[in-house]
Amino acid sequence: MKHLIDIRDITTDEIEQLIEKANDIIKNPEKYREKCKYKKLATLFFEPSTRTRLSFEAAMMELGGNVLGFSEAQSSSASKGESVSDTVKVVSCYADIIAMRHPKEGAPMVASFKSDAPIINAGDGGHNHPTQTLTDLLTIKRKKGKLSDITVGFCGDLKFGRTVHSLIAALSRYENVKFVLISPDELKVPGYIRKDVLKKEKCEFVETSDLQEVIGQLDVLYMTRVQRERFFNEADYIRLRDSYILTPEKLDTAKADLSILHPLPRVNEISTKIDEDPRACYFEQALNGKYIRMALILKLLEID
Amino acid sequence: MNIDSIKNGFVIDHIKAGNSMQVYKYLNLGELVCPVAIIKNATSKKMGKKDIIKIDGNIELNLEVLGYINHDATVNVVKNGEIVEKKHLELPETVTDVIKCKNPRCITTTEQDIQHIFKLTDRENRVYRCIYCEAKAND
Ligand SMILES: [Zn+2]
After folding, report:
1. Which residues 92-131 of B have a C-beta within 8 angstroms of A?
2. B85-102, pLDDT tens digit by residue?
3. Which CATH class is domain A130-286?
4. What are the structural domains of chain B?
5. Which residues, other chains included, contact A178 with Cβ-Cβ below 8 Å and sequence gap of 6+?
6. Which residue of A has its CA nearest to B114?
7. Contact at CB, A109 and B107, closer than 8 angstroms
């Protein structure tokens, strides 16, 4: 693999290698401290995403490399009308590897056609965000010891949540993963996920609007935010919002080894009272994001 | 031009009735200097009505584009006044710079000098998707 633009471009074997590498980094961090010495990562963020950018920068720094870049379009030449192609052609002269976030869908793919340096898609609009999916997979693997034979619940906004769509697509390639899709009717997964992913891969899945009813079956619960702007009227939003907030009471019937994930930032969809519960994995998930990005940088730079 | 007998060129037959102007446009037939005839609403045993385009000239015909916009058409190659070959069209795997992506969030709407590429993602339902944003063509 030369670039990482879409999680579906890489094989499950490659995902396995990245997870193994990340696990080794977690176990032996000192071994990796100088692996990227004298190497530079450019973070080209045409729209702000502090969390993702810091994760990439921390990853490169922990490998002994350096970082440069910009964190919003205003501070880049894009504000003067420079194309993505030209920006990337120039930056790839300075940097060994590029992480790019852009509000337009497909921008990192355009960049990958023009760049000699590997491009990592750090989010293109509502389209792809493959390093988030790798982060989620690493977290599930570390918690469950496997990516097959598990029941995974997705809860909240399953219609617009791109992290949900790509994680479903990624998990659908593993054996015997059962999907439980929990959302209000208004925010069910789009038809193409049902048809082109779940049915095509012959995955077992159920759709429900009741979290409480199914929580006891789950090995993993992936929470997302139900956003106000997704609703036509305030009354519907308020009525539905609370059904999809995770509280300690709702966890009463959950398995003792449930893993609760959330791509963060959260607003109120997971009660902060749960943060101390051993089943809460979302902060660990954020940390895993750095490790999987370290593994990815090494892989794309062909450093062992 | 006698539209029944062209000497060297092509007869694009079985064009869906009403589609001939679209074919004319996408194949850039307006730029040709050789004779071109468009026959609309001809009677067809198979289709009821059909359009036909006749081109009296040895030109390069872009079968990829034609396959995309009118897959059911047939192309008869005419040499010395006789049909020497009947080509059935295939759905092309990709179409480049024929149509544009209509997704306002797609990078192709802002990036200069970009190739507009669509890929066949579902042969059965003839679905093409933009390679950049995956939006369906003509959606
Ligand atoms: Zn597009």
Report:
1. 103, 105-114, 130-131
2. 999 998 999 999 999 999
3. alpha beta
4. 9-88 (3.30.70.140), 94-130 (no CATH)
5. A150, A151, A152, A203, A204, A205
6. A110
7. yes
